[in-house]
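Data availability (excerpt). All sequences and predicted token strings are deposited with the supplementary files. A representative entry, Exostosin GT47 domain-containing protein, is shown inline so that the format can be inspected without opening the archive.
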Amino acid sequence: MRGKEFNVLASWGEIVSWLDEAKNSVHAIPFLEPSGQYFEISNTSLRAVEIAHKARSQLRSWINTPAARAAGAVYRRFGPAEWWNQLARYRFLLSPTGSGIQTAKNIEALLVLTIPIVTRPDEFTTYDELVEMGFPIVLVRRWSDVTLNRTAAWWAELSPRLHSFRRNCLTAEGFWRMYMGDVSRCE
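Structure token line:
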């Protein structure tokens, strides 16, 4: 696929950066929530916040390891004006769980033909269901499952489906067909 200069991007936190702040640690939840200090505008649950915080912390730890560098993974932050152009330059996006379980950055990645890599929370089957519905995303148990050999295999398997998936599924009509149950798998 033309234009894919880089392998794996880790980028998060610009919009929901409050998940990364120490004051939002899961240990602080019982104290902050009753006082109204915890949530900014969000549609979430405490369990989702806990899982998101954990996924981000684990990714932050892994991204600076030799294994991450060997996989071609880099951490970058971009402003809103740069996001789309930069995201399109990567084959994969490491996408930690968002505060609402799913996160817009997965759809944004697919729109620019970048494959999201998501950790699979044991408590939620959401991402497994998306894969069953045809979403070309990669599910891993831990970030260290991302290697250069695996990304090459995932790219060979999933990249041929990206154009078709965007054209047929990432439209208002495509989403409506999935939402209404008219299709069980979109490709």
